[in-house]
Amino acid sequence: IIANPPRRGMAPAVRKAIAALAPSAVAYVSCDPDTLARDLAHLAQLGYQADDIQPVDMIPLTDQVETVALLVRRDPPQARSLYEDDDLRIVSKPGHAPQDKARGNERLLLSTAEQSSGISVWSKKAGSFALFDTALRGPGSRQLHVVLAKGSSHKKGKIGDKARYERLTPAGGHSLLKVTTEQCVPHAPLLRQLARIGHAVVGDSRYGHAPTNRHFEEKYALDRLFLHTARLEFEHPRTRALIRVDEPLPGDLCLVLGRLGYLASMSPNEW
């Protein structure tokens, strides 16, 4: 397959359709290094990794340089481990990657929403699920999410009964929020509650604002939900130790913020 998408890159559905055809190789011709990097990361999750990348000087003495990437079939990369012990496996999920597969007796305890990124948690033993499910959803557990929300929010506010937000910065007429939940809750209620208070998550196809989503895809290279689970804290029910894992904002979301002119560090340690 030879693909030559516009500057905004391929839509996620096109990447999935290419992988579903199972070609022996893909040649991707790109005129934008940012969207090329974003798309190659997703294609790698779909089983096609870059084997060679070659710049092509289309018009000498100008900045019109295109890139041809040759992709070949390879196994998708494994989810990056953030913490593991005899009971738990905590991993980082990329935005477009499918949820990590279970191994042996593993069961999914805490997951990210489809097309969001960040921290997900698996129990490794059949007898561990209920114990850790109670610990994650009980008092003392906490999650931190980074969200780009539609519109200009207040500096601080509540979201339902279990979450609160703080605006990190205005962002192109919208709001970059730090959302903290005092108990670990699924993403779906959070998305619904943010939309209910007038600040739907940008990129949310169910509760969001379709014209805003299109604008961000075409101008800011956002091709998914701008929701990232950046921190998880809870008390280990067996050892009583505080478990804390952090996951920095991924490159595709940093790209969006860079195009918005927000250049501050997005390390969780600074939140």
Task: Describe this protein with a few key phrases.
single chain; 271 residues; alpha+beta; 4-stranded mixed β-sheet; 34% strand
Distance between the termini: 44 Å
Number of helices: 6
Q: Rounded to an integer, what's the Rg over CA atoms?
A: 20 Å
Could you state the order of secondary-structure elements as H and E? EHEHEEEEEEHEEEEHHEEH
Task: Point out poorly predicted stretches.
Answer: none
Overall pLDDT confidence: 91
Characterise the protein shown here.
The chain has 271 residues and is an alpha+beta fold. The strands form two sheets. Strands 5, 6, 7, 8, 9, 10, 11, 12, 13 and 14 form a ten-stranded mixed β-sheet that branches. Strands 1-2-4-3 form a four-stranded mixed β-sheet, with helices on one face. It is built from six helices and 14 strands. Helix content is 23%, strand content 34%.
Topology, pairings included?
Blueprint: E1 2-3, H1 12-21, E2 25-30, H2 33-45, E3 48-57, E4 65-73, E5 80-84, E6 88-93, E7 107-110, E8 117-123, H3 129-137, E9 142-149, E10 156-159, E11 163-171, E12 174-181, H4 187-196, H5 210-220, E13 227-235, E14 242-246, H6 251-260
Parallel strand pairs: 1-2, 8-13
Antiparallel strand pairs: 2-4, 3-4, 5-6, 6-8, 7-8, 9-12, 9-13, 10-11, 11-12, 13-14
